[in-house]
Amino acid sequence: MAKATTSATGQGRTYGGQSSGERRAERQERLIRAAVDTYGEQGYRRTTVADVCRAAGLTPRYFYESFANSEALLIAAYEAVTRIALETVQAAASGLGETEREARLEAMLRGYYTLLREKPAAARVFVTEMSGISAAVDAAFERGLAEFARVLALTLDPDGRKTGANVLRETGAMHGLLAIARIWIAHGCNEPVAEVVAIAKPFCRILVSQDA
What beta strand segments (E) does the chain contain? Predict the structure, then answer.
């Protein structure tokens, strides 16, 4: 039996070297990973709390310890996938200089579409599962797209300011990239990534104003 002690960090009693706060965070992470997998395999609308808990190896008690409802978990899963996507595209361009803007953009797009092809469950959460659920989910979706588009925009124009016109450009470009991804994924990702990148690159041209 694991020995219980009082945590010196104020995170509650410690079992097996973990405080109660650490155990709760670990369970939350398990639920998010399970949600990405189950939503990706069978879709958010066909997935129950019990399905996610079963995949995570946890009881519903622990689900409601971390999330108010399924929508809150969907948003958390989307935010987790968005972080992975952002880290992937930034890492793809990390070896290129700031002045190599076209090469950086191409590398980022290649990293983005490669990630979608190699991680279909995460791709489904990022690309298809966030539409028409609720206003809160729509807002989370738009925040994620805006963050992603801003990263691409700053690659082409590092000095670009976040003006109203630029926000519109970024929104249009990101929805274009997503539309390409949706069709590509729906058709089994048959076209090579290089071909998809070549199709997507012109959409990124609108990220930069004509007088930049």
Answer: 4-6, 13-15
Which two three-digit tokens encode residue 108?
Answer: 């980022």
Number of Cβ within a 10 Å radius of residue 168: 11
**Res. 15: pLDDT tops 90:** no
The per-residue b/e assignment along 127-159, b for 16 or more CB within 10 angstroms, e otherwise, is bbbbeebeeebeebbeebbebbbbbbbebbeee
CA 17 to chain centre: 31
Task: Name 5's bridge partners.
Answer: 14
Task: Please report the sign of the dihedral spanned by the C-alpha atoms of residue 40, residue 44, residue 50, residue 53.
Answer: positive
In tens, the pLDDT along 187-203 reads: 889 999 999 999 999 88
The contacts of residue 15 (CB under 8 Å, 6+ apart) are 2, 3, 4, 23
**Poorest-confidence range of 72-81, 108-117, 124-133?**
124-133
CA distance 11 to 8: 8
CB 151 within 8 A of CB 86: yes
For the chain, give the mean pLDDT. Answer: 86
Question: Contact at 8 Å (CB) between 165 and 209?
Answer: yes
pLDDT on residue 17:
66
